[in-house]
Amino acid sequence: MTQVPSGADVVLLDYEMSNLRSAGKALERLGARVRVATRPAEASGAEAIVLPGVGRFGAAMERLEAHGFSQMLRDAADRGTPILGICLGLQLLFDGSEESPGVPGLGLLSGNVERLRTDLKVPHIGWSEVTWTDGAGIAPSDPGASHADSTYYFVHSYACHPSDASDVLGFAEHGTRFVAAAGRGSVTGVQFHPEKSSGAGLALLGRWLENTSAAVPA
Predict the structure, then answer these.
(1) Residue 111 Rama label (left phi>0; alpha psi -120 to 50; beta)
(2) Which end of the chain is more exposed for a tag (fewer CB within 10 A), N or C?
């Protein structure tokens, strides 16, 4: 199992829109030192930040604002602090969502979020394989990796549409192809739940933490 060389200091943001327990336990299992923050002051000095999320886009942005996290995340991104958005957390990184018209997102990634347009049942709930793009730092690096190494658990009705194709890190399928992971610079997000995706998800979190450790000045 991957261990984080530096025992990175990772902050989980608690804005009352997610169950933090499983994500925190997965990160701790990988060697990270995990703190839960309910306000910006509690995130001070974080080497990396995880933004989980379930629920509606508009309600999540309202609570991020109420907790003072929106500007904190923008400032952290400007400093190059690694940020990982999970599920709704990925969607919040974008400019907005048609789920909540007129509600601005964090704007850390350019583009919008749209409802999945597919003939299959929505929400998409279950396991899907992710096809990674070249240079996706969170993708399995082993050329012999099996499809199981890139199969993750999804629960969502909306998907992200980055304005810049180079921000796409991976795709999955649910009757139509959709963006399963996106990122730019120190900001990364995944539409699936790595903390609920068995060994493949744990390995992905480990790769993200390794990248985080490399980004933290000695």
Answers:
(1) left
(2) C
